[in-house]
Amino acid sequence: MTFELPQDFFLLLNKQKRYSSNGELNCLRHILGVRKAGFCGTLDPLAEGLLVVAVGRGATKLISLAANAEKSYSGELVLGFRSASFDCGTELVPSGVKFDFESLDCRAVEQNFTGVISQVPPAFSALKIDGIRAYRLARAGRMPEMKPREVEIKSLKIRKLTDNRLGFCVDCSKGTYIRSLVADIGDFLGCGATMTALRREKVGPFSLEKSVSIPELREDPDSIVRAIVTVEEFASLWGGE
User: Fold this and answer.
1) Model confidence over 3-17: pLDDT tens digits?
2) Per-residue pLDDT, 123
3) Catalytic residue ranges
4) Is 8 helix (H, G, I), strand (E, B) or coil?
5) pLDDT in tens, 50-70
6) Which residues pair with 153 in a beta bridge?
7) Are strands 48-55 and 193-203 parallel, antiparallel or unpaired?
8) Cα–Cα distance between 129 and 169 in angstroms, integer?
9) Of 65, 77, 62, 101, residue with least CA distance to 194
10) Handedness of CA 220, 222, 223, 227 (dihedral sign)
């Protein structure tokens, strides 16, 4: 690496699909030779896209500044199927409900789910129930009772892809589960729906376009330059000192 890294900084990391957020973070620590690092919000293993990573003690102290960051996602869903995890992480079960894809009104779906809505987080999630991760209970066959929460969908755009698949783009508040949104869309349409792909495009003012992936860093260590956000820049963007 010809570029000299600052002691503390933030990195825009493009997480790979089917890798855990912690796994990607550990790889990053190894590549950079650092011990202190954390992220501003995780992604499920089946999701890909932007992770904002704090590197160094000075950066990790500022993670809380991004706690309320709005996020943007793109993804796909399949109609006519349900799953316990609301995605492809568990078995897809046909709903058995026939629907007319041609007459599906995307605008009606968008309008119904835009604004402040109530949603139930997936049982297969990292939320804690009596000190235990919900997904651990769910995997053990003890499906936990998940309490509904209010979130805000700032913007929702849906497009038809094939005879039972939809693409979507979402801008939303913190704490929003896109998998739950997809499942609720399936209930609204009466045929069930399961999320098949998800990419986080933005976290607050930070965009996936300027991120770097673990394979890119391994092949070209200097590619890190485009993905660095200084501590000073991060603090100024979030209203810190």
Assistant:
1) 688 899 999 999 999
2) 85
3) 44
4) coil
5) 999 999 999 999 998 888 899
6) 115, 172
7) parallel
8) 30
9) 77
10) positive
